[in-house]
Amino acid sequence: MAADFEAAVEDGLRLSKRIYFGKDRAVAPPKPHTAMERAAGCSYLPNSPMLYAVISDPAVVDNPDMPSYQPHVHGRCDPPALIPLQLNGVLLEVDCYLHTAFVTLTGTWRVHCVMGSRSCDCRIAVPMGEQGSILGVEVEVPRKSYGTEFISVDNDKASENVRKTEDGGFLKAHIFTLTVPQVDGGTNISVKMKWSQNLLYHDGQFTLRIPFSFPEYVTPAAKKISKREKIELNVNTGPETEILCKTTSHPLKERRRQAGKLGFLYDSEVLSWSSNDFIFSYTVSTSHTFGSVLLNPPLVGDVDRRDMFYCYLYPGKKESGKVFRKEVVFIVDISGSMSGQPLEDTKSALFSGLAKLGPKDLFNVIAFNDETCMFSSTLEPATVENIENANKWVNSNFVASGGTNILLPLNQAIKMLFDNSDSIPIIFLITDGAVEDDKNICGTVRNQLTNYKNISPRIYTLGIGKFCNHYFLRLLAMTSHGHHDAASDVESIESRLEGLFARASSIFLADIAFQNFDVLDDLEVFPSQIPDLSSESPFVVSGRYRGTFPKTLKVNGRLGDMSGFTLDLNVEEAKEIPIAKMAAKHQIELLTAQAWFSKNQELEKKIAKMSELNTVVSEYTNMVLLETQRGKANADTKKSSRKGDAHQKEEPKPKVISTMHNIGLGYGSLSATGENIPSGYGDPDELEGAEVFAKSGCGCCGRCWRHCCCMCCIQVCSRMNDQCGIVFTQLISALACLGCYSCCSACCGGEEG
């Protein structure tokens, strides 16, 4: 999809040459990237929020203010070309709470490339930062407005006779797209985009990075147009903290400073739009581990009427220097679907992870497909010699082939890890496939981990692509105090793996427990197994409760030198921090993993309600696009106005015009895994549907041709002359008819017709 999108933008830039900008020679149409620029990594994927005109008929492309009366163009663009629209103004508003940022970008674009008498669809692209989650899009055009909404898949609105669009959803894991229908040429479009994302954390420093790098060709051609660029940033790091600013990409002016709070503003008339991402980094001054507990009542409309709490810990420099000695087993999927770049990037990240092990650490590597292959039968010390031998072993044994069997290597890794009291056992599981016995694996692992008297193994999982079941992997991690991450596209495998390794390698506080939770009633904690605290990531636990929360929450744990750790956390009302919005995405992901495992329909309904209330993507809701007409009175309103009931005018009601299905991660694809389809090729639901169709339609033909592969057919057909090709086509058509006839007979109970 990303490659098709880039090709469509390149076609659109070529079409832009038809736009006439007058006699000003300084104004020229945008040029596509040269071959050298493409080789250097230049891409047409958006690095900032963008709007594109969707052009199927190239004859409509012209300046709406200054027609050029060019010759008619015969033919159509299939697939449609995408012409980037010109940006007239932009406002970026960011509210940072602890380690979560809520971003609202409001921009005004103009359909500068379509005749005033014609119209076109407009596609919105929203690139997001770290772990971004789309919250909503609002669009204003003359006489109409549009907005997105999350509704349950069982909602009546979803079953209405509306268009199920394919021109929306996630282009890549961090790029959301949405299509607005039929906007007139020359129209100004106001768009408000909202999303949430995490702040990066490293070595005590928080970094906010928002895609805000606009290409040159979105700058309006007319020099007299005012171009205002504005950024508003608010930072709230919690009570009793001091913020130290480090770096910023744009010239921000401080306008507010309080304890734990900062406010900044940037407002300027510019000649061209920002060509850099918006970056802001800061530290929270402390030498010791500290944190707090924030409380909130339930939101209005929340089906769960229990109160909410949000507990966080920031790692301190004094304690984080005492990391645990580690016993690490790397389990890597080398099935056929991992061939090429996925396996090469995994190997690169694995080499980096091995190099960071300390001399007192122990390690092993297990490669698996249908079978397993181990670097060593036991854990080996992480000496320079052993690391070099492991790298050589990986290069010679990591050959992609075969299927996917996860249970066998997991059992081997768990048995291999010692039940020691002076080290922390860690399993890294990297896979791109789904397995049939995933629920059995979760139950088996859970039973095995309960047998550990000391620190039980932590399982860190990385799912690659959409064909693996991310909720299975998340449940494995959640059961074992571990962590799950997803590399939704091949390009992000190495960076996500290195981040996962860094997080697990810097654990300095384990076996964390809250001592006075027992005074609360009906307590629910997310995640249920309390995670460890790493110097590379803040610690967050949220939940629901009834009763009176204690004034201080006592936290106990075990440090890397095996000494005890105790901390009293102050409990406060979160008056200015929206903890429900901050916790919603993580809670929905954890609850979805539980709902997948238990098949609990009540839990599924609860998740759908949470998604609707907090506007967060889930597996049990669809995103719909609502249209509201403005400036047109309906018949009832006209009748009431004639009678003098002017005060009873009804506001126009929005109606659903399109539905975007399956924008969540999904539950993987067994058929794609079985066929070793590489990650990122096709959609799991489409593949499952194709498999069902093939099974139902092939009948006896499938049994006749079960030993024939597609490549064999291609090779045979390439050697045929025309007459043989015709005969072969007729034969396949006849067999297909026989197959359909046998299927129909089976469906109809053997009756004729």
UniProtKB/TrEMBL annotation:
> What range(s) does the VWFA domain occupy?
327-500
- Region: Disordered; residue ranges are 631-653
Which InterPro entries did the record assign? VWF_A, vWFA_dom_sf
Q: Which SMART domains does the UniProt entry name for this protein?
A: VWA
> Pfam families under this entry?
VWA_3
The protein in question is named Inter-alpha-trypsin inhibitor heavy chain H3
Provide the species name: Salvia divinorum
> SUPFAM superfamilies recorded for this chain?
vWA-like
